[in-house]
Amino acid sequence: MEQRTMTSARTASGAPLGAALKPRQLTMMGLGSAIGAGLFIGSGAGIQAAGPAVLISYLVAGTLIILVMWALGEMAAANPDSGAFSVYTARAFGPVAGATVGWLWWVQLVVVIAAEALGAAALLASVFPALPVWLMAFVFIAVLTAVNLTRVKNFGEFEFWFALLKVAAIVGFLVIGAALLFGWIPGVQSPGLSNFTGAGFAPNGFAGIATALFVVAFAFGGTEIVSVAAAETEDPARSVGKAVRTVLWRILVFYIGAIFVIAAVVPVGSAGLKSPFAAVLDAAGMPGAATAITLVAVAALLSALNANLYGASRMAFSLAGRGEAPRALAFVSKAQVPVVAVLASVAFGVVTAVLEVVFPDKVLPVLLNIVGSTSLLVWTSALLAQLALRLRADRDGTALPLRMAGFPWLTGIGLFILAAIFVVGFIGEDSRPQLLSTFALVALLAVANWLHHRTAKAGSGKGSDGVGSPEQAKAPVLVD
Model pTM? Predict the structure, then answer.
């Protein structure tokens, strides 16, 4: 194995990315990206499919995301890079595989940016009907683009407070839920735990739990952004380690706790599962519950939009630095922000949003179906890359600042869970088209990247080995 120490790295503008994200911002970013609209609004779908037994599905999916984050944390601490899993996949399996994963994630994020802007605007319009959905969507995009064009510390602070709002909402919900279940709310009878007894715990049996597993796995999408943001932290090894350790148990507490309360209070088949958090607060006699949860969901969507624009721009920047995208995307402003990558990423989202406004339900649903399973493939690539790179590092005696315990068995368990989710997805009639569409997109990107490398001139340095992102100077020793 060759060890390379890089002492300097310059982008097209002659400036590196910033390194101003603080550990608390990275920690809250990882936590906030997992607590999104999928929990506040979509959790009812999992309960509808499996009943209270959906807790099993969330435990399995939660275990998976813990293993993925641990694996990503190990690689990010050793080699902080805005290309993250794309770079790690390139190091493990070659530049074509790495570029394919990077472009796949970028396409997912830029499509989701449009969905989140329109979704947040629609939710806000349900509370304030006088606000035009199209106008609010573009206001949201414009404001968050401006945030992403300033120094990364401003983005980190913005995302920190977004995440803190969501965490506060979850904590408040858990307190109210506990009071309701223990019968501490005056004039309100406790529903007890009757939903968990007898056949009502798993009304659809194992099939329902398996179906819910495929549904709830997507609720954890976005946590991988921590590995991308590691490249712009002050002390990547320490910050990533702290973020991984902190986020893991908090995700389980918040998710499992919230789902437990909902499953105990809202029975399967109830119309309240369409907005489960509001249903629990209504049962507790809390006035204005629906409005409050709607506003929190708006914040959750805007937080995700903010983080996804950041992630998409950094991935585009990394791809450009490796010669896998136009070099202009590697241009960095005086504020140490990849400004062209930010604008290119948001432009795709704006075009998609415009088309969706002009042709309602014609464009966005199709695009979301194509990229719907992208996170599962990204997680798979991360675990496979960590398996290969850790074996390589252990073989050569390379010291790692953060090591995933239980290797290789825990990595294998993560891959097994992912394989099970894919099997369930292919069996389900509703999920099969989504998986097939995503795999078709992967095949298209892989062929395009293979042709790019086939026709590109042989050379050395950035772009020739698929791993030469500019900001790799922050990693003192890179294993190749």
Answer: 0.87
